[in-house]
């Protein structure tokens, strides 16, 4: 690893490299949580440390949606839409956090899916039936990463007002919430309705 720098809050930056994509060329930055914890990445395009609010997406890992093209959620299409929006703008950040299943992990997410299939539970009820909080995500590490990158304020690509509040509590200035709607289909309609009803997600449609 070429570098290993810790910011004041504890996130460890382990290196950066060029990452060409179909939406344009990014620089991918790797971070570790203190004590050999989870690994996270940030994709950066353009000059993001000039003081102006940065178009940004804080995206929690969803292996089933991001990599396996599941239609049970809208995660993969949202990630692609965010990359496309930043590519068009020529400037922005994707913070990709390894907190699958709203913080419960991949295998527990599969167990939660099974509860939904077996009992007709929604995504919140399934997590709670397994003994987890409805949303166990923490955005402290995202704030650490943005500070390391010199991002002072963000124009946040999200439909989730709780994410705006979580980042603000972690010290990130959210100058604007930018709607990000993509990937609605018959398999995730009830899931999206649950996000609106129980998490307060804001959908224009």
Description:
The chain is an alpha/beta fold. Helices cover 36% and strands 25% of the residues. The chain has eight helices and eight strands; from the N terminus they run βββββααβααααβαβα. It has helices spanning 63-67, 75-89, 100-103, 106-119, 123-129, 140-148, 161-169, 189-199; strands at residues 5-6, 12-21, 24-32, 39-45, 54-60, 92-97, 153-157, 173-178. It has an eight-stranded mixed β-sheet, sandwiched between helices. Helix 4 crosses helix 5.
Q: Name the assembly state.
A: single chain
User: What radius of gyration results from the CA coordinates?
Assistant: 17 Å
How many beta strands in the DSSP annotation? 8
Instruction: Give the biggest sheet.
Output: 8 strands, mixed
Q: Based on CA inertia axes, which overall geometry fits?
A: globular
| Low-pLDDT windows of residues | none
Order of helices and strands: EEEEEHHEHHHHEHEH
Structural class: alpha/beta
Query: Could you give the distance between the termini?
Result: 46 Å
What's the overall average pLDDT, rounded? 88
Strand order of the largest sheet: 1-2-3-4-6-5-7-8
- Strand content range: 25-35%
Number of helices: 8
Helix content: 25-40%
Chart the SSEs and their pairings.
Blueprint: E1 5-6, E2 12-21, E3 24-32, E4 39-45, E5 54-60, H1 63-67, H2 75-89, E6 92-97, H3 100-103, H4 106-119, H5 123-129, H6 140-148, E7 153-157, H7 161-169, E8 173-178, H8 189-199
Parallel strand pairs: 5-6, 5-7, 7-8
Antiparallel strand pairs: 1-2, 2-3, 3-4, 4-6
Helix pairs in contact: 4-5
